[in-house]
Specification:
Chains A, B: This is DUF3369 domain-containing protein. Chains A, B: It comes from Motilimonas cestriensis. Chains A, B: The modification 4-aspartylphosphate is found at residue 78. Two copies of one chain form a homodimer. The first copy, chain A, folds into three domains: 3-158, Response regulator (Rossmann fold, 3-Layer(aba) Sandwich), CATH 3.40.50.2300; 176-299, Beta-Lactamase (2-Layer Sandwich), CATH 3.30.450; 322-497, Hypothetical protein af1432. In chain A, helix 11 (327-342) packs across helix 16. The radius of gyration of chain A is 37 Å and the shape is elongated. Chain A has helices at 10-13, 31-40, 59-68, 86-97, 117-123, 137-175, 180-195, 226-232, 236-244, 277-321, 327-342, 347-356, 369-372, 380-397, 403-414, 435-449, 461-470, 478-486, 488-497; strands at 22-27, 51-56, 72-78, 104-109, 128-131, 205-212, 215-221, 248-250, 253-259, 264-270. The first copy, chain A, has a five-stranded parallel beta sheet, with helices on both faces. With 500 residues, chain A is α/β, with parallel strands linked by helices. At the A-B interface, helix 5, helix 6 and helix 10 of A face helix 5, helix 6 and helix 10 of B.
Chain lengths: 500, 500
Amino acid sequence: MDDDILIIDDDEQVHDSAIQSWKVLIVDDESEVHRITKVTLSQFRFDGKSITFLHAYSASEARDILKQETDIALVLLDVVMETDDAGLQVVRYIREQLGNQSVRIVLRTGQPGQAPEDDVVESYDINDYKDKTELTSQKLRTLIRASLRSYRDICSLQRNKRGLEKVIQASKGIFEKTALDTFVEGALEQLTALLELEDTTIYNIKHAYELKNTELEMLHSTASDKTETDDLQQHPILQLAIKDKTNIYQESEVVIYCKNPRHNLIFHIEGTQQLSEVDTHLLNLFTENIVVALENIRLNEVIEDNQKEIMYRLGEVVESRSKESGSHVKRVANYTALLARLNGMDNEQVETLKQASPLHDIGKVGIPDAVLNKPAKLDAGEWTIMQTHAKLGYDMLYDSDIPLLQTGAAIAMYHHEKWDGTGYPNGLRGEDIPIEGRLTALADVFDALGSRRCYKEPWGIDSIMELINSESGKHFDPKLVQILNENLDLFLEIKQKYVD
Amino acid sequence: MDDDILIIDDDEQVHDSAIQSWKVLIVDDESEVHRITKVTLSQFRFDGKSITFLHAYSASEARDILKQETDIALVLLDVVMETDDAGLQVVRYIREQLGNQSVRIVLRTGQPGQAPEDDVVESYDINDYKDKTELTSQKLRTLIRASLRSYRDICSLQRNKRGLEKVIQASKGIFEKTALDTFVEGALEQLTALLELEDTTIYNIKHAYELKNTELEMLHSTASDKTETDDLQQHPILQLAIKDKTNIYQESEVVIYCKNPRHNLIFHIEGTQQLSEVDTHLLNLFTENIVVALENIRLNEVIEDNQKEIMYRLGEVVESRSKESGSHVKRVANYTALLARLNGMDNEQVETLKQASPLHDIGKVGIPDAVLNKPAKLDAGEWTIMQTHAKLGYDMLYDSDIPLLQTGAAIAMYHHEKWDGTGYPNGLRGEDIPIEGRLTALADVFDALGSRRCYKEPWGIDSIMELINSESGKHFDPKLVQILNENLDLFLEIKQKYVD
């Protein structure tokens, strides 16, 4: 960790426009004290900023102001007002009720006898104790300067602490994401939250890109104007980050660059205010965590890709015996997923169905070559054997604890049931047929009709749809047939993509 | 975030034994000033601690002391010593050279004319400026008390900041772990680092357990004494954490409790010093991250378990055609992994081989029933067909980008090669046969001999080993045969576990 980040010299603070001026609260029941203090300090400046005075003439007025104004730097506090210890009660109110540890408190008393100095300084969390008589204008200036300096340093430490706590929160937020899209959205939100430590700063233009070859692809944006978005991609700061493969902090703009062997993410945030050194330190810390989280997501993606491919291979190995093409399982998987999505199923269900779909004919492994590959119509006995593949597939998978294989078992069992109850193995009817079976039945037949088989040539799309429509409510779930008709172009895109 | 954690009252600080007394450095070329200051403050206590004085009689002595002693709370600093501005140079040295922002600096000058107050207070990062004449013993006590209070608050903020930075580091450390064992070890290390914020605290007894049913299983320990370890499991604080399912902080002991649907982890750390509120706050923050990281590990484990099971199913489906038992692929996978591990391969290689092993006979899907299931010796033509299963299996897998399936392709291709060059399909010899093939060849034959097949009864272990030893250097890699002989009991354990 770089502790230099906390070394703040006066020059640097000039740029910290978060504080426009220093708020000093004068609490005294004599208006002359207010007047003299104000006159004495009228030309005073610290860190290039002047003082804004707030005035309270009693402890109760002081309490009201302190409750409202949370960024008061210094309270010059009379002791004896409504009561002999009214000022001391204000000290307790500030530290204990308001929990404000940063504001500096200087007691100014005209009657030192009322409040013995040692007792007061020991018992109350104040930062200085002065007799009004000793406060020459020179001493007042020194007091104010030392107090503001102390306030500034404490605020800086507290801001740093809040920033670090935000980094911890933000990191937790992104490590909870396991998919790229939610991760990107979350990271952008957390980055912005991190930058909005000061209420006066607003970061309102945010984009996340993925760099693919040399093209920036927009992953997420909060910009309302699309034209503006397009222009931003040519922004020199983005090009610089890509070239140097590093974060760029420039005036009020931030580009966060994160790379791993699979992803090249770039977050671009534009704000209204120059970044401080503390901001960039926190952003660098957070970027390290983004990189770790992104690597975890990559590893997840690799494992999931592997699983998908293994499932396809499993399906293909089985199909290879019936001499069906390798692309059949991929097309059926994609048709099934598309039907499921258009039918309103959620992403997880769709993904599970897609991955499990290649298992629909796994039971064919148990069907003899003579039946499976007979280049003519099966006789009644052969047909009975052929039908056993549904239950055989189910038996191979149903006892698994894995939802994916359980879905596979259901698909294997029910993909030859028919809506009108004339299917096999159980002759189920209508919605008694599990949705996994109804979806795969339509996807499988839609693909089989369009493919070359040992017993037939591929059909044209018109003939396919004619048959399928005529079987709506007989073989197929009519709702799914309707979905297929209404979105035929999407299904034909899949057919095109996974051509044999 | 709970900001209350920073509200530190004087009572609480009494327990903070990290600071034994407050170090105050007096820098003055008049020894009388040293003497009077010391006498005046001899009875002084702040937060229950007295003052330890350090004495420097010149700026150069002051620099030496300040360089050595990094925990000085306050410097009472004369201005005119070796030179007219010797004291001012010390201020620059402290803030700029040493980068020490926490020590409070009070200038005490006897010749105010030498250093005009406004200029000095503005230009130097000091915390107060006093004429020696105005410092009565009352004013000195007030000054010291206010300065120590300010020092204490700044130290507390800085310690908090360091703690938060450690939480960030520690979290990054654990999120980089993707396996349970390295995660547990890492979390224990990071927890200890987090607790060792104060150099005076040493946490030296550390254990990590997994709660399985009602039993605590030790996952990791740094305790040297095993007996002590056993006793600790009955420790009431562990029982309390388990009962309440929460972290427990008790005197100098910490129990961190993390739970998800698969894991129930308990970290137990014993130290030498009572935990502060800041410590428990940081530990709670870190615990939240441990829980998120542990959940990520669980999700990984689920995906990997799924992958393993899918690979087994894939193997089993294929074997089901040759009527081999479902346990054959599991036994061969475990024999292969054990041989690989004993042969010195690393964990990742062993795991890949284990998962890919079920694919060794995947090419048999392409072998006709008549050949595959012939209950008699194959004739020459049939044997030629049978042998194609090695290359067929390879062809099904070799074009995958997934290392797991590439390993599967190699296993399928080479598991019928023989050490003396008489195997198939390529007649490779000795170490020209890829290790995947040599390992699976031995594992497959070891299992086949011990199993019932359509053409033979299972053999006893003595006959199996007699044949295998006679084939050492002919069919099998002699080094692997030696490993099998030397560790036969481990292989028989697997045979026992995955009995048909």
